[in-house]
Specification:
By secondary structure, the chain is α/β, with parallel strands linked by helices. It has eleven helices and eight strands. A six-stranded mixed sheet has the order 2-1-3-8-4-7. Strands 5-6 form a two-stranded parallel sheet.
Length: 293
């Protein structure tokens, strides 16, 4: 059975659309259609509903998708293990981390790791923790830094970061001299926030939804420096981690009352083969990362 066609089929099943799947794979849509047709001929089954817009996969297609996902995962593990037999220093790590964490916590770690293992490639994927968890589950990542307070039974975790979320605002802001701030007070102000799917945004959104509050969001951005500039110029206030403001003279941070914890863990999928490169990276993370508590 052609593994490439199976991989194309799984990507199509995952995205549910020929156009999106072809773009994700990096081929033309007609080429994807031909590959799927050849796969149907190869297995002797109709896999795609071409007349039913509400259901892309046939019943047979659903069964093949589950089996193909397992088969491709096993094939990937074989490929990784064989690659390591050739050269223990070679390998590729697919590591997921948010932009903020990548910018402020990992330069030292990544530099130290590359100096020790120059031949190992690291592919950094920037997403929110919810998206990264999903990518781990789908086998698109080897390791990811995600929330450690809501553990998924299909993942393993090693806690790395335990900090406190604070409110950040210009030193001239009327609330800047407060010793603590409640989420109720925070939600009444003009806000500059991360996009949905990022924990520093979700903690505010969930509270507002529970209290039936309407948020005045002036800007949504994952660009930390832009966020700080907007806060500095009093466009709004935001949530962040205090270490991000260590060198800021025009922005102050105020802790929330009650405190808001920010816990992140290094996670990987259970029963998923971790390469020696990934294990070495895990060791480097835990030994190089500055103590956070």
């Amino acid at each position: 059975m052609n593994l490439k066609r199976l991989a194309y089929f799984c990507q199509l099943a995952l995205l549910g659309n020929f156009t999106r799947a072809a773009h994700k794979i990096g081929i033309a849509q007609p080429a994807l259609s031909i590959a799927i047709q050849k796969l149907e001929q190869e297995v002797g089954l109709k896999l795609i509903n071409r007349t039913d817009k509400n259901s892309l996969l046939t019943a047979e297609g659903e069964v093949l998708y589950k089996l193909a996902t397992q088969l491709l995962s096993q094939a990937k593990q074989v490929e990784l293990e064989l690659e390591e037999l050739k050269d223990l220093e070679r390998g590729t790590i697919r590591f997921g981390v948010s932009a903020m964490m990548g910018s402020y916590y990992f330069p030292k770690v990544l530099t130290a790791f590359k100096q020790q293992y120059p031949k190992i490639k690291i592919h950094l994927i920037d997403q929110g923790t919810a998206a990264l968890e999903k990518m781990l589950m789908n086998g698109e990542l080897d390791l990811a830094l995600i929330r450690g307070d809501l553990e998924n039974q299909q993942l393993r975790y090693t806690e790395l970061i335990d900090e406190e979320i604070v409110a950040a605002m210009a030193i001239s802001h009327p609330l800047a001299k407060e010793e603590t701030l409640s989420l109720a007070q925070f939600c009444q102000e003009p806000l500059v926030l991360f996009h949905q799917g990022y924990f520093l945004r979700e903690v505010v959104s969930h509270y507002a939804k529970a209290q039936n509050l309407s948020l005045d969001i002036r800007m949504e951005t994952n660009l930390i420096e832009l966020q700080k500039s907007l806060v500095r110029n009093e466009v709004g206030i935001t949530t962040c981690l205090s270490r991000i403001l260590q060198n800021e003279q025009q922005i102050t941070s105020i802790p929330f009352e009650p405190k808001l914890a920010f816990k992140l863990s290094l996670a990987w999928k259970k029963n998923h083969y971790l390469s020696k490169a990934s294990k070495a990276f895990m060791t480097c993370l835990t030994s190089t990362l500055d103590p956070i508590n």
